[in-house]
Each structure stands twice: as C-alpha cells, then as structure tokens.
Fold these 2 entries.
Entry 1:
Amino acid sequence: MAATPAPAVPTIALNNGVEIPQLGFGVYQIPPDQTAEATRTALDIGYRHIDTAQMYGNEAEVGQAVRESGIDRSEIFVTSKLNNNRLERDDILRSFDQGLSDMGFDYLDLFLIHWPLPAASDYVARWKALEEIYASGRAKAIGVSNFQPHHLRNLFGASDVRPAVNQVEIHPFLVQDELRAFDADHEIVTEAWSPIGQGQVLGDPVISRIAQQLGRSPAQVTLRWHIQRGDVIFPKSSSKDRMAENFALFDFELDQEQMTAITALDRAGRIGPDPDQFNWIPS
Ligand SMILES: NC(=O)c1ccc[n+]([C@@H]2O[C@H](COP(=O)([O-])OP(=O)(O)OC[C@H]3O[C@@H](n4cnc5c(N)ncnc54)[C@H](OP(=O)(O)O)[C@@H]3O)[C@@H](O)[C@H]2O)c1
C-alpha cells in the first residue's frame, strides 16, 4: 500500500545537526503482539518518529512495522533506550547490536541511557559506551533520559560529547521549567515523556475550559501547549482515532493567556519515579 504523505510536523535540529520531528509516537505499554499493528497505524496517519526502549520489549515489532511500511528508512526517526540492567561496556555494546538486529536496521536515529540509577551504577561509564556507538555511526545521535542537572554536569566534566536530548517526565502537573532551561542553556533538546500525564491532566477544568474555547479536545490542547513550548513529544495511544487526534496539532494555536494558565497548573505532580531515588535494575 502506498504510504500516506506526512503532514508538516516541524523538526528541531539537535546539537549535532540531526533533525528530529517534534511530534512522534510512543510505544511504552503497548504489548509486543500489538506493537507492529499500532506502529503501522501511526505511520499511516503520518507519524515519522517512534519512541521505543529495550525495556518495553517491543523493539523488534517497531522495526518490523518500519521495514514493512514502504516508507524509506531515512524518513522515519527511531529512538531506543538502554535497559537498566546493561551496566558494563561490553554488555551495552552487545545489547545495542542485538536491538539493531531485532529491528532489522543498520542504525538508530537516537539511543538514550534510560535512567541515571545514581546509587546503583556509574552512568558516566555507561555514557562512554554510548559514545563508542555514536563514533561507529550506528546511532546518529545519543542522549539521556531522566537526568537531573547534576547528573548532566558530571557527564560534561568527563566527556566531549554532549547529550543531544534529555527525555524527562513533563506535563501540565509537572512543568519542569528549571530543568528545561538548564537543558536549553547546554544545547540539549528536552523531550517530554507522558505528555498528557497518562490521561491524568485531561479532566482538569482549566484544560477543559481552553478546549471548549478552541473547539479542540483536552489532549490536543495539552499536546499543543508542549509544541509551543518547544519540547519534543510522543504521546502513546492504542486507538487509531486517538492517534489521529494527537497528530492534529498544527492548525490551531494557544494564546499567551491559555499558555500561562496551563503552565500555572504545575503542582510537582510526578507520575513516574524520582530520578534521584530510582535505582531499579531488572533481573
Ligand atoms: N524515558 C522514560 O522513562 C519514559 C517513561 C514513560 C514514557 N516514556 C515515553 O513517552 C511515551 C508517552 O508516555 P506515556 O505512554 O507514559 O503517557 P501519555 O502519552 O501521556 O498517555 C498515554 C495514555 O493516555 C491515553 N490517551 C492517549 N491519547 C489520548 C487522547 N487523545 N484522549 C484520551 N486519552 C488518550 C492512552 O490510552 P489509549 O492507549 O487507550 O488511547 C494512555 O492510557 C511512552 O509511550 C514512551 O515512549 C518514556
């Protein structure tokens, strides 16, 4: 089947010149046996950026959908992340190669350290292994996820390669403006995970009021807020209609009052773990 032409999703230049689509599709919690179908549907809608991870157990199915889509590999941006149980250099390189082979790719667009695990691992040593992967050309860019400024500073002191992105939890109940400013000051693009707070922000009265004003859904208003702040997002949905809804963000705008009102919903409302406390290593 011929691929649908991608609607105009803006791209953002990473600090090494690689362009990343600002809107993608996340596959966390999509079971492996449903991931190829979900990814195919997302690609049909027009998504050209997929966010997976070794930990999600569905890299192979993402790869399958991309390969079978009929869309040139170079037109689809694929991110994966290092599992928390890959701590040693050789194991990191092996697991990366295994992921590529499972996906049927010869490169990834972006590869991230998933969590810093500050009390359980040497994340600087793990970063050095990612640098080797980057130098080999098998990842076009490398970055981190769930890093706080003090974790990033430790990398800056030990490495010449700046992370291209920092993927962290951000939504209207956890706006993370200090961390975003730190990233921006160091030429690191911020990616916002759980951009609609896994659905938790959608019933908020302020978001509902703005959705009514604009004739858009609460999810579209929230995702558009991220887009106008300049972060990269990849909402997850298992429904074709909601995937399409989440993709329709580029024909309306929030005004300054609406942007400010959503940012004011901040309440330190983390859904996920605190990166400074999280040291979980799966067996
Ligand atoms: N780096 C990390 O540590 C980390 C952690 C978490 C997530 N992530 C990444 O971020 C991506 C997105 O985060 P997330 O999946 O946690 O949360 P999310 O995208 O904020 O929310 C997903 C939830 O919202 C529902 N939903 C989606 N679109 C909707 C809409 N238009 N209206 C109403 N409900 C809607 C989905 O249900 P349905 O599926 O039923 O539509 C699902 O329950 C993940 O897939 C993953 O790629 C990264």
Entry 2:
Amino acid sequence: MLNSQIQKNLSGLYEGFHSARIQASSDTADWEELQSKGREIKEEVINNLDKYLELLESKILSSGGAVHFAETAEDATQYVINLAKKRDVKTVVKSKSMLSEEMSLNEELTKNGIDPYETDLGEYIVQLAEETPYHIIAPAIHKSRSEVSKLFSEKIGTSDTENIETLTSEARDQLRDKFIQADMGITGGNFLVAETGTLALVSNEGNGRMCTSMPRIHVAIVGMEKIIPSMEDLGTFLRLPIRSATGQWISSYVTMISGPRKSIDVDGPEEFHLVIVDNGRSKMLANPQLREALYCLRCGACLNACPVYRKVGGHSYGWVYPGPIGSIVSPMLTGLSDGKNLPFASSLCGACKEACPVKIDIPRMLLYLRNELVEGNDYPHQRTSKLWERLLSKCGAFILANSKLTNTLMKSASLIANIAPFVRKPFPASWKKTRESPALAKKTFVEQWASLELDGSLRKKD
Ligand code: SF4
C-alpha cells in the first residue's frame, strides 16, 4: 500500500473535499435541478459541437483574437512553440492546465529554449519536484509539509521552515519576478461561451488572472468539449463544478476574457490566441457509448469519492488523468491498448456516478470498455493466460470456496508474515518507493467480527 503519509493525505481528500461537496450540495436547494440542467446543456453542446465551435470561432475572430484548431497534442504544442519563437518569447508563465500535461508542454518548451513556470502553488511544487500532478484539482496532495519545505530549500534556497504561510510567501516572491519577466501567459480554460466568444477561468489563487493580463501574449489551450452555448448557461456551470470540487459556494476568482486588449482597456495582452484541441476527443464523440465522458467538468469529485483512487493514489494510473473518469478518458486519448488495465481498476461501487455533478455514468462506460477489451482479444483474459496463472486462479477459487480453509490459511499467513517480515516485502524497489507493507492483523476478519459487541440490528448474538 502507499506510504502512510500519502495515505493520510488521501484520507484528507475524503474528510475534506468529499464531505464539503456533500454539505454544499445539500445546502443548495435546487441541486438536483442544477445537475439535470448542467447535463442537458452538455448533451446539447456535445451533440451539436460543430455548430457551437463555428459560432465561438467567429466571435473570437471578430474581437481580434486568433483561433487554431489542433487535431493532436503535437499540433497544439507546435503552434505554441512557433508563436513563442516568432515573438521572441523567452519566459512563459502558466496557470493550471491538465491539457498542457497531455501535451507535455513544459518539456517541449524547455527543449526549445523557452522557460515555463507553473504559477498555481500545487503545480509549482510538482514542477520543482519534477513530477506529474497527483490529483485533478490538488496536484501536490501527496506531498507533506516537510517534503515541500525540503524541496523549496533544495530547489529555490528558501529558509528551513515548515510554516505554510512562510512557504507560500517564498513561492509568491519567486513567482512575482517570473510574472514580470514573462512575455507569454498560457492558461487552460474552464468554459468557452459560444454566443459571446468568452473564455471563463475559475481559480482560487488569482494566478490565472495574472497569466492572462500581465504578459503581452495570452494563449489559452482548451479541449473542444469545454464549450457551452450562452452566458446564462455559465451561471449554471459556475456553481456545479466548484461546489463539487471543494464545496465552496463559488471560486475566489472568475475571470472572463473576450479577445486581446481594446483601445479603451488600461491593461491586458496585446494578442489573444485560443488553441482548441481534439487529441482523441472526436473518437469519444463518435462513440455513443462513450460520448458522455465529454461532459466532464474536471471537478475531481469522482476521485475523492473513489475507494480505489484513495488507496492507489494518482500516479498509479500512469497518465495525466487519474481516478474513475481517468480510467475512461486515458485509454480513449492514448489508445485502448495502452490503457488496457485502467477500466479494470474499479470496484464498480457507483460512488463516482453519485458524486458527479453532471451524473456521468462512469460504471456503465467502464463495463463497456472492459467488454471491448475482452471481446477484442486485446486483454489477456482467461483463454490467453499462462498455465501458472490458470492454476493459481483455480487454487484461489478452491480456497475461497471453503471458508474453514480460507480462515486457517489467513491465520497462518498473518503469523508467518509477522514473524518473518520479508515475506510481506516481496516487491521491487521502485514499487516500495511510495508504498509500504503494514503488519498483517493478528486476528482474521471473521475473528474480529465474532468479538465485536454490536447491537442486535447489526448482528444477532446466539
Ligand atoms: S466525471 Fe464528473 S465527478 Fe469526475 S471529474 Fe468529471 S465532472 Fe467531476
């Protein structure tokens, strides 16, 4: 299992974000109505995406912005790099964008001699640690305060302190200079309003607004599914994801951008470029079974609710999007054969669907993908498994079918493993880096259950 510090941080997600979401949704009198409305709007847009994309493009062009449709992540990256080179950009400030992770944008910018700086605090920590985000909305959730302190002191020479305010202030000092130096700000986008050509950004740190207003060029890279029809619809979407993500009523900052600076504006960028990215999304659009994955608002509520995510953590999913929705999106964006284990990384308990603000039926899609993999012989199921795997499965089935034998073996396994700890540490070093094998319980579940003093409604005593 993951090391105890990460385990503790992940349980914090459940006690913190998950509980706050439940509270916020129950405090919102029309929550169910809001959810249905949000879902209807997404359904309408995704089914008529071409119409809304054309409308959006015309509005952005008429306000003086540029629009580039990128079929692949490479195409989107190349557009940004070419633009940066043409405008002699040396430093870029970025606000949080999962899509830029899909594009490996930081690595590509660095290779081309352009310095990218993440300005969201969590992303900044992850960038300094040379890691990838651990959670959609809390990228550095796996790091403890002392780890961050050590990292800051090693990488940016800050004083040796674990005081959060001091650490945050140190990061702010470092980043202020970068905002001033930067010629280009790169952001994602939470929503694209088609009728007005507006990019809407929600954040809690204000860094997104600085990325969009301080550098002379603003580039927004946004997945094509982020479009919504009207400003009125934005009212629905400013409430749904933030209440589901952190339980806040509304995010601290809501920034709306419609093109570059106008002659009457006192600040803002000279150029505004919107890069609308496909990168595999049309494959989901073309498949009626998976289309609803495009309704995702990237709020992270399904990750916080998921018992599997909370045990295995974000990096175990192996690519940009972790958790239940990641188990659908990643195989679709990277190719089913690359993410073939992910649809199986679920207990199908349904907690993700229950938590989702737009009621995305994640368990149904996971089952669909499992079926696709098995039917397509793309997954090593029983017919193609090795002899020792088949024998092991048969042994397991025989033992589990006999409760007395199971209990005896569990008891002996616990005794042996606790006397000889190496028995429970057969994993390779890379696996053990962020994981530990705790001592096995001395009593089996059945013994613990038998000794519990429960009230009659839960267990009748003989
Ligand atoms: S699937 Fe639903 S709960 Fe999960 S991130 Fe997307 S919108 Fe949020």
